[in-house]
Amino acid sequence: MSLRETVNSVDTNAKRQACMELINEDYNKLGQYKMGEVQSRNIMIIGRTRTGKSTIKLLLMDPRNVPDEMTLKSGTKDPQFQTFHIQQQEVVLNIIDTPGLFERSNVESDIRPDEAILKGIQLCANMEITKFHAICFCVALTSGINAQDVEAIEKLIAFLGDEIMNNSCLVITHCESKDEEQRNRLKLELEQDTFFKKINPFFKLGVYFSGSLNSDDYKHGNESLKNQYLTISDYRKKLLDLFIKIEKPFPISEMIISQIRQANDSVEQKTVQLEDEKQKNDELQSRIKELQEKYLKEKCLADDLRVKYEQQERLVTDSRVTHGQREGQLKNLQEKLQQKDNIIKRREKCQAQLGNDLKKIIEMEEHQTKKLEDNCAKLEHYNYELNQKFTSLNSQCYTHPVQSYSVQPYSVRPYSVQPTIQDVREILEKQQRFIKAFKEIHAAQDCLTKTLREIIVELSSVIENS
Ligand SMILES: Nc1nc2c(ncn2[C@@H]2O[C@H](COP(=O)(O)OP(=O)(O)OP(=O)(O)O)[C@@H](O)[C@H]2O)c(=O)[nH]1
Ligand SMILES: [Mg+2]
Known about the structure:
binds guanosine-5'-triphosphate
């Protein structure tokens, strides 16, 4: 056989088969990172806050999980995306755990249901998940179904359309201690429930139960944990069976996604606006705080000023009173001054009067003096005459003796000649006139003295008053 014939006669197929058998044997024994096709199931869990959504996720992962102790505060803040592989089934579960609808938080800002649903779908779109195999609507046995659940389902249908019903189921949580009889009774009760009647058609995939190892029983190591484990394992299996068997997922159309994106954008815009507003609000708050502090400082100042003002006002009032008193005193002084003025005037008047009176008195005195001088002159004359008479009578006394008569008129020198009766009578008459003249002088002096006394009395009273 030629070489050509020998080469052409080689059985290539048999050789390849032999090679591949060796390779396969080696890969099966030693091959690394072996790949196998898996199917994925996208599951979204939604429902009111604290109904047990995150706990369902834990149950699906591992039925031995024990949830944290119950609190009223919401747990999941943002949608959570997690992927699990069901080993025997070559199925991958993409679980989207959403924040609770009608969330209760510390800041009292309820997340609106549409917002929470939107966030979940947006997250799926971001993860290139554009179809859902199941939407698990979660309600807790402990809190039942209410108007908020109805509202949430209506919103979901409004977003995604009626078709979503084919891929929706209801999951009742907190049922780890319920036996089959109790569950059936529960189902019957549900059928009678007003709210459930409204949403029942939505759950075309049916009603399922869920639960978890009770944290209190776990804490106390109660025997009931075993039964709970068995029950929740059944729930888990039923749920997983459901997810695995769903072959027709609900597609989220591009349109819905873009709508959701738009809605989400507007939500984000609103969130940004909200953040802005919050920042502005914070700035305003700090400004208000500053102003309040300023106000308090100014108030303190104003209070101080008010106190000072009140003090000043008191001082003004006091000084007004003092001023009034001073004015009164001034008035009194003015009155006294006036009185003194009057007194001075009266004194001046009195002095003038006195001057006049004194003048009159001086005049009168002068007059009287003159009168006295006249009288003296008269008396001297009269004395002279008497002396003459006596001289003549002395010369005649020897021829006409008369009874001796001892008359000795004023400033008349004694004589030894005896006067006649006629002489004596004349002398007596003259003496009487002399006496009369003296009486007149005396009366005038009396009058003068009286006037002087009156003036003195008046002056003393004026001086006393002043
Ligand atoms: N016994 C029992 N407790 C549960 C069950 N589901 C939830 N809980 C309790 O309820 C609490 C809240 O459960 P979560 O799973 O966090 O509720 P959620 O719906 O995810 O809450 P949000 O994320 O706030 O919306 C958990 O800490 C558990 O204590 C259940 O099936 N059985
Ligand atoms: Mg949660």
